[in-house]
Design goal:
Elements (H helix, E strand, L loop, with lengths): L6 H9 L5 E7 H5 L3 H5 L10 E6 L3 H15 L3 E6 L4 H4 L11 H15 L5 E8 L7 H11 L4 E7 L10 H10 L4 E4 L5 H10 L4 E3 L2 H5 L3 H11 L8 H18 L5 H15 L6 H8 L5 H15 L9
Parallel strand pairs: 1-2, 2-3, 3-4, 4-5, 5-6, 6-7
Helix pairs in contact: 4-6, 6-7, 7-8, 9-11, 12-13, 12-15, 13-14
Length: 319
């Protein structure tokens, strides 16, 4: 979710009902080198609490030092260690999911971070179920992390070699939840409120983590809470409501200023806008228009044109 779950997107998800927020992952080495760009990834506002700063790296002592610096700067509610990222540029530096192949090093990293900051804030971790189909070791890794003092583990139900292909294996996630006494949070293929309810009722997980589904449908948090409380979905968000959200996302990002001026901000948000088109009428056409958008005026004109054509149509806005 790097490049997606920035300060503005998290704020919007919180408004839509997300309970616990985690920042984009940040490099421990970048923090130690006082890199201004890296430090921006740790930004959050108080309305997002409880919020954790997500770190990756392979040197436990240095990651612990980075975590201490972050706590001095930002006072997050917890530190989260990323042992799950499958991206090559992270894995090649022995970070993310590469540590699933080296349990002694993974334990050393976790222990050093807990030693450095565990008396200040809780330390949590995110993992995948293993490196590949031949090395599915998530229950063992969860036990190691619990013994290191990690206080909760989020488990994504795919191996590193799967990337985001295939299906998440919730049987392994359930096995993880049965193997430890700390909370296990399930993640993977949670695309609807009904699916969240199903996974909560058929596994022992203490909670769920929603990632990619929120990119196109951040209302999933509100819908899930309503379903869990009432056994039904709330009224779907209208097409106009979607456009209001999109325009507000862009305006808040402009006000934040992370990406520079209007043109650069719109360029940075193009992929986010294209994600929002999923489930909207004429979504393919919208994606084409979003891919070249460069000003707020152009976006506002597109919104007005799209609403004029489709607001009163019978085409539903699906999740």
């Amino acid at each position: 979710m790097a490049g997606v779950t920035d300060l503005v997107f998290r704020r919007l998800c919180k408004e839509h009902g997300a309970d616990v927020m985690v920042t984009e992952f940040v490099s421990a080495e970048g923090i130690l080198q006082a890199d201004a760009r890296t430090r921006k990834y740790t930004e959050f506002d108080d309305v997002q609490r409880p919020v954790g700063i997500q770190l990756f790296g392979a040197d436990g002592w240095r990651m612990g030092e980075a975590a201490r610096k972050i706590i001095d700067w930002k006072q997050p509610d917890f530190i989260d260690i990323n042992f799950g990222c499958p991206v090559n540029k992270v894995v090649s530096k022995n970070g993310g999911s590469s540590l699933l192949k080296d349990c002694p090093l993974l334990s050393e990293v976790a222990s050093e971070i807990v030693k450095a900051v565990g008396h200040l804030v809780p330390v949590t971790a995110k993992i995948r179920i293993g490196w590949d189909a031949g090395q599915i070791n998530a229950p063992e890794v969860c036990r190691l992390l619990e013994n290191c003092g990690i206080q909760a583990v989020a488990v994504h139900g795919r191996t590193r070699s799967q990337g985001y292909g295939g299906e998440a294996d919730w049987e392994v996630i359930d096995a993880c939840a049965h193997s430890v006494n700390i909370p296990v949070i399930g993640n993977g293929d949670l695309t609807s409120a009904e699916m969240v309810a199903r996974r909560k009722s058929t596994t022992r997980v203490s909670g769920v983590m929603i990632g990619r589904a929120a990119m196109s449908h951040p209302w999933i948090f509100r819908e899930t809470k309503h379903w869990l409380s009432h056994g039904e979905l709330p009224l779907p968000v209208s097409l106009r409501g979607r456009w209001e959200h999109i325009l507000r996302h862009v305006q808040l990002t402009l006000d934040w200023g992370r990406y520079g001026g209007e043109r650069h901000t719109l360029q940075a948000l193009r992929s986010r806008l294209m994600a929002y088109s999923k489930g909207m009428p004429a979504g393919k056409l919208l994606r084409g228009r979003f891919s070249s958008i460069s000003s707020c005026a152009e976006l506002e004109d597109l919104a007005a044109e799209h609403l004029d054509r489709h607001e009163d149509s019978d085409v539903p806005c699906a999740a």
